[in-house]
Give the backbone structure.
Amino acid sequence: MKYLLLLICTIFLWACSGDKTDEALLLLDKQKLDENINYDKIVFYKFIKIAIRSNAVLDTNMAEYQHFSRHTRSTLALMDKIDTNEHSISVIEALKIYNNYRKVKAFVKETDEDIFPGLIQGLNVLHGAPKVDFKTISPAEKLRTQNIEHAILSMAVLTTRDLGQPFALYECSKTQPELLPDSEIKTLLEFVRGFLFFGNNLYYLSEDGLSRNIKWLDKNENIPLPYTKAFFGWRNLSDTQTHTAFHGMNYLFRGFDRMRMERKIDEERSLEDFEFFLTDMNKLGLQNELVWIIDAYLNLKRDYPEKAVLALEKLKKSPLFSETEHQAFQEIIDFANERKPDAALKGVYDKAFITKLVSKYMIATIAKINWEQVMRDNNVPHTKEIFAGVHKFRNISNAVSQYTESSTINNSKKEITKKGSELLNKAKNLW
């Protein structure tokens, strides 16, 4: 029904205009986002989160709680016994958790985890705190809390091996930063969302959030940005310089969104955004791979190949890129020296190649950040518990995925048989 309504709205918006409108394309991106986060590993992640969050429910008559409770209680009891720092998860433990998940999987897919108390409340209850009637909490406070939790988790899983961008995309999809009070956290969350949406070809969703960021930054030139400094490794920049640099980064990624869109007007807008990005970087005297990529691209577009070559020579020497990419830069230089910028832009230095380079730079930047330390330094509550939970989930998820493969279950029959034929039959019934 949800997808049908989205489709009807999209068709209606298209019918009102001979061209694809910004509104229609944004709505289509929202539908694509739902599809991108609706696969098994993400649903299992959501199941574990619901198990923790529903544990804090005081009103046990709640219909969703009753549906989940038996399976989630069993799962939490198993998780509590598992110390992933001490030993690997056994076949039996993994199968029990998977069996609980399998029984409620369809319901998990259709259930919004945010109808339950916050994750921190669930963790508190697991550690002995009393349950709280979350219905007495104001809607505004609940919205603020769950947005912050989703934002923190999106950062926590973003650079985690085995989780990474798909899980961060899910967490970002659950945030509603446009409904949060204006702040640096909101703006940085919008940027992370924008980067993740861009990386998943959701260009209109990405552009929408980055446009809000640019407007906010234009109105708030003097606000401190400590998280932003940590995110980009700009600790040597002043608050004013950090504002300028972050302002430019939002223009940069909005430019990339528009560059990858289909309409002619979007390409024209993208070139304007790239100009704003370079203006901000030149104010700071910053020189890095992002500046050189855009400088080369704009000069090729303007038919100034000799200026493009200066930036391309710097890219060719960058250790960030592979030997194959260095060879590609040399090929672009050859085109530019032959005064064939169109051949470069339609061939080697096309939009897909530039997008790959920028994504590589951003992921390398984000990977350097110790988010747990950053959050501890800024006194984010329950940082230790959140990262311990992410670590435990990663190990459990890997074990469950491993043990639910048919080849592995055949190799594990001896261990299961030791526990009795009843467990063996349960394992067989899963496949």
In short: The two ends are 30 Å apart (CA to CA). The first helix runs from residue 2 to 15. DSSP finds 23 helices and no strands in the chain.
